[in-house]
Design a protein that fits this description.
By secondary structure, the chain is of the alpha/beta class. The chain contains 7 helices and 7 strands; from the N terminus they run E-H-E-E-H-E-H-H-E-H-H-E-H-E. The protein is globular and about 50 Å long.
Length: 197
Amino acid sequence: MQNEKVLILGNGPINKDVRHQIDDFDRVVRFNFCAGLPTHLGAKCTDLWLSSRGKQAKKIASDFPSIDTNSLQQVILTEPAPHRVKQNLFKLIKRKGKIDYSVEIISHIENKNIVTRLEEPYRRAVLADLLQLGRPEYKPVCPSSGMLAIIYFIKNYQKVTIAGFGFQGWKRHPWGLEKKKVNELVRQGKLSWLDAS
């Protein structure tokens, strides 16, 4: 396990000025539009996790978040590689939520070698683990990007801290189970919350 200190910043509200705390971390993980990068959340971003399908991905492709891409060490696309034939069909029938914009998104990243994708088996394994904690309110499609990142980093790094997680949003993410999992990881000492109160 790597010894770097990791901070995963969700897109939930953080009202405290935590710029200096954020700068103390070796790796800072953000998502999609990085909550708009307000001044009090600083600008440091070493790891950027991006949706590559649907309405949000289309917006990322056309209006990429204003971060310093030269400081990025890793960009993760949270959806698996698209199937070319299916993508043509989705475009034809205008199934907007399934259309992949990864090519357009990647064009904003100077060093293409730092871009990787999450594979479907990983996403399924995280969801299966969550479902062992109980029954979700709605049938889940997949874990949130935040949960996928948390599991990824606690498997690879010793010190992982999170902030800006409100466990709400699209109903097809199992928010209640994700909150349970985070609480479990905190109890086990594998994860901690940033003091942002």
